[in-house]
Amino acid sequence: MQKPNNKTKTEKQLTAADILGNPKYLAISYGGYRKNTRDIQPTIPELKEDMKILAVMGIKLLRTYNVQFEEVPNLLKAISELKDEDSSFEMYLMLGAWVDCKNAWTDLVPNHEIESEHNASEIDRAVALAQQYPDIVKIIAVGNEAMVHWATSYFVRPNVILKWVNHLQNLKKIGELPKELWITSSDDFSSWGGGDPAYHTEDLNDLIRAVDYISMHTYPMHNSHYNPEFWIVPDNEAELSDIDKIESAMQRALLFSQKQFDGVANYMRHLGINKPVHIGETGWATLSNEHYGADGSKAADEYKSGRYFQLMREWTNYERISCFYFEAFDEPWKDANNPLGSENHFGLINLKGEAKYAIWDLVDKGVFKGLTRDGNTITKTYNGNEKELLKEVHVPPKREEITI
């Protein structure tokens, strides 16, 4: 008779309820694409390389976004192989299932009142992976920013998300999915009722009742352009040093995110509902030649990105909020036609295997010793020279320098 594997039993008992909000299980958004197209999928060896890097950073919970490509099935294989090789290896997934409206990403006009015919097969693929890897997949997220109205190419109404959340919850009830698997949707704070009253609908209220927890997004960096009032240097700080002006702005950025988080939590509670709220996505680009760069709000650079990362980790760990920081590695496919576009530069590690300012301390601690990414050892950007880094940092604008 074969002796039972107690390690496997223990892992299967570890649930989303145990992991989410636990500072020992840091979360991050992950994509492993190295090239400027998703036609070139990351290989299993490349994915395993990334998992080893993230593991030594203390990351144990990943967020992925869709299952129509080979990346996520291969990622699950990679994690499973690493667990077989080392029984102490831990990595769990918040598995994203992409949801669109009819005619999304086509030459036709998107119909936001009808869902895409592809959604059902995407949900089916997510279910199959959750069934195959119950020791790794702990959460399924239905849609990514799929309800927010500025996602004009593909957004759907909350009733579509509600339909699929209820479907997954029913699969749990009848035993086709683990009852401990948590179901959510990951969306902008406003989509969860934390802002514009236009989102306050009965379908949203029913969705909040149906999910196991709320996964909300907050991006003060983007708002430094779209809602810059919090970002500009106030008159009473005009005489501060540049570095103090920047630090004050980053503290205001933190407060901006905290207010959006509170807005979602307060809307939920006014419905008489009390369930966990976590941050499904937030981040700060290290480079931009668009709205957020030197000719715009002057927000995007490595120093500010590093401070935002530090401030968010400190706050969310203290409050036991899971924060899926966006993102682990730079991904050049996100804005393939504009290499200097901000979407390509949200990673904590760049394509040369260099750790950005946010995690220079981990390089100093030697956690990456013996690890490489694409043949590159993990070193610091700017050769670790903070003076050189600060030369490329811009002070947030004064009121007269920006259009509100």
TrEMBL record:
Localization, UniProt: Cell membrane
Single GO biological process annotation from the record: cell wall organization
Primary location: membrane
UniProt-listed SUPFAM superfamilies: (Trans)glycosidases
GO cellular-component term (any): plasma membrane
Domain of life: Bacteria
Keywords attached to this entry: Carbohydrate metabolism, Cell membrane, Cell wall biogenesis/degradation, Glycoprotein, Hydrolase, Membrane, Polysaccharide degradation
One function term, GO molecular function aspect: hydrolase activity
Known function: Glucanases play a role in cell expansion during growth, in cell-cell fusion during mating, and in spore release during sporulation. This enzyme may be involved in beta-glucan degradation. Active on laminarin and lichenan.
PANTHER family per the UniProt record, alphabetical: GLUCAN 1,3-BETA-GLUCOSIDASE, GLUCAN ENDO-1,3-BETA-GLUCOSIDASE BTGC
Protein name: Endo-1,3-beta-glucanase btgC
Species: Hyunsoonleella aquatilis
